[in-house]
Amino acid sequence: MRECASCHRNLPASSYTANQFSKAPGESRCAACIHGHHSDVPSAREFDSGRYNISDSATFSTYQLDNPFSQGAFRWVAKGTYTSGPREGQTCVGKWFKTGAVFEDDYFTLDIKAVDKALEIINFFNQLNIVDKPVKINVPGIWSCTATGQRQLIEPFIQNYQKFNSNTGWADDSTSWGEVMQAISHFSYHLTRGQFVLCDLQGGIYRSEVVLSDPVILSQNRDYGVTDLGPQGINTFFSQHRCNSYCRPNWTKPANPAPVFRPVPGTTMMRRSVPTRPSRPDRTLFP
């Protein structure tokens, strides 16, 4: 715990950016004091904004794998059921590549990397206490089929799934939660001093929380794979962004951003895959 030099609250290390925590005690300022607004009442508790499998096995029927209920730009999504742990009997989802996708080796590593960065950003956003519900991120596990070794991403199922914005500046901000998601994307740029934008925000709104999945990170160095559109993506996002009541006037943004990509609801990639048909796993039981 460390006392913030501005608000004098004793806060955990997670309440400080790495730069601020590296300063001597008595000089560190918490993220809420640096990035928040005078009208906000920041939370003093430590956040873990992840939503986890808390299980180590699941099963998928042949029908579910032959008939995925959803799909993204380069992967299929099927429903399964957890078979162990606190989530036993609950619905999970498995995600695997469409035939013709050519970047599978990168995908698993970079997907987890994007989730880790998103968690870092969302933890700080939740501490600002701007909205009355915590925002959470599904944290997938990379599980392998017991028989074939084929890998899938497994994570908890999200009800009432909807998309709030994309990685090309498209946004559905017709509702309050749509505006909140735009504010989160704006905040991510400010928090990281212009290095990253968290976007492609999608998920479900629950009574006590909002759960997101499949986040995209746009970065200045294109460190996050095929959906990371780099500086051009960041400029495109802000060329479309209009601040709302959840954004704060002290949050920074690029000067005179120009659009490069056409704003579309789908997730845009810089590399191409050629999807054809489902290539379902050979077995249905995953540890």
What does this structure look like?
With 287 residues, the protein is an alpha+beta fold. The chain is 23% helix and 20% strand. A hairpin with a 6-residue loop joins strand 1 (2-3) and strand 2. Mean pLDDT is 86; it is low at 272-277.
Question: What can be said about the biggest beta sheet?
Answer: 7 strands, antiparallel
How many beta-strand segments?
A: 16
Number of separate helices: 6
Portion of residues within helices: 10-25%
Order of helices and strands: EEHHEEHEEEHEEEEHEEEEHE
Low-pLDDT residue spans: 272-277
Distance between the termini: 38 Å
Whole-number radius of gyration?
A: 20 Å
Mean pLDDT: 86
Secondary-structure-derived class = alpha+beta
Beta-strand content: 15-25%
Shape category: globular
Quick overview of this protein structure:
With 287 residues, the protein is an alpha+beta fold. The protein is 23% helix and 20% strand. The chain has helices spanning 18-21, 31-35, 62-66, 104-128, 176-191, 230-240, and strands at 2-3, 10-11, 50-51, 58-59, 70-71, 75-82, 91-97, 135-138, 141-144, 151-156, 162-163, 196-199, 202-205, 210-212, 216-219, 285-286.
